[in-house]
Inverse folding.
């Protein structure tokens, strides 16, 4: 039985900027390249974007989002992921980009 730590990291990214214009495709390509180089692969779920809904100041806000998943062997490098999150927030023109990680067990 393998006991190595494995994490599934998910990044939620908006398809549109705050002004409603589409995100530049080059941003997604650059992220894909960085994740493949560092982790050996990444999966982008972008064929049927998910709708993110939340309430702010009594108004319902909506984002069309893409999920990006990466399997990470070993410990999570929090400094690297924090720096990536900050860069994505800047590049994708977002107040916050959610990156989450959960331990997984390979069956």
């Amino acid at each position: 039985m393998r006991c190595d730590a494995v994490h599934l990291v998910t990044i939620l990214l908006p398809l549109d900027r705050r002004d409603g214009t589409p995100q530049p495709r080059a941003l997604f390509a650059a992220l894909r390249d960085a994740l493949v180089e560092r982790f050996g692969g990444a999966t982008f779920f972008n064929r049927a974007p998910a709708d993110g809904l939340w309430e702010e100041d009594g108004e319902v806000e909506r984002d069309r989002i893409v999920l990006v998943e990466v399997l990470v062997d070993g410990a999570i490098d929090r400094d690297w992921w924090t720096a990536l999150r900050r860069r994505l927030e800047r590049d994708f023109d977002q107040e916050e980009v959610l990156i989450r990680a959960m331990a997984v067990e390979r069956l």
